[in-house]
Inverse folding.
């Protein structure tokens, strides 16, 4: 079964450094998402991306964050200047492969990147 | 913003017992989803519900989309040790491919 894959599985970065998290969504999906999960807490939405632009974003997704689809397969999340509170699991998800049943195609998640800010 | 109240927060049960957990919201959702998360992994989709009143099964799992579209429950029958994990409900807000709003999770422990 097709999967969402994320790299790296664990990233350790000094505070203030830039970090790029990478995702390869399921190949025929058209919507892409980033979520984060702080240790022991619920999963929180960051941003969705469709047709090469941001579709929705949450309050968490401030100017330090950006997303990009640099080629036909990768979807990246960049944090420009990391803060201690950015430490979390970051999950990529993808959904919707086209057709009229846009609402009946659930999001599938990768295994996440654990980001640790020192 | 939209929030989901998921209960119970945790459950400790004996192998073979049935389990029930639920989510409620003050907001209406068009889609309810149930995910399971094992340690160090991402959420894995268990059941997706698209219509109010819909009752859907996936093996020993059964979930229902409340008629008011503000709640959902998940039942697991005859639990086994590999059912251990955290179960999250999620409501889909906004457009049909809108972001997911997650509950805080139900941590299930199964004693053999």
């Amino acid at each position: 079964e097709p999967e969402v894959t994320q790299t790296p599985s664990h990233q350790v970065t000094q505070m203030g450094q830039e970090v790029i998290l990478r995702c390869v969504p399921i190949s025929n999906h058209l919507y892409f998402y980033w979520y984060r999960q702080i240790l022991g807490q619920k999963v929180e939405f960051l941003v969705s991306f469709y047709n090469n632009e941001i579709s929705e974003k949450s309050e968490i997704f401030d100017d330090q964050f950006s997303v990009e689809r640099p080629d036909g397969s990768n979807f990246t999340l960049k944090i420009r200047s990391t803060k201690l509170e950015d430490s979390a699991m970051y999950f990529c998800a993808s959904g919707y492969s086209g057709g009229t049943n846009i609402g009946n195609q659930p999001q599938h998640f990768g295994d996440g990147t654990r980001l640790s800010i020192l | 913003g939209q929030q989901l109240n998921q209960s119970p927060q945790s459950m400790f049960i004996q192998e073979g017992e049935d389990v029930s957990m639920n989510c409620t919201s003050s907001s209406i959702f068009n889609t309810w989803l149930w995910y399971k998360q094992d340690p160090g992994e991402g959420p894995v989709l268990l059941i997706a519900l698209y219509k109010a009143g819909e009752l859907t099964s996936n093996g020993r799992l059964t979930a229902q989309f409340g008629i008011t579209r503000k709640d959902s429950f998940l039942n697991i029958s005859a639990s086994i040790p590999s059912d251990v994990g955290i179960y999250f409900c999620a409501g889909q807000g906004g457009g049909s491919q809108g972001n997911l709003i997650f509950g805080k999770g139900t941590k299930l422990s199964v004693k053999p």
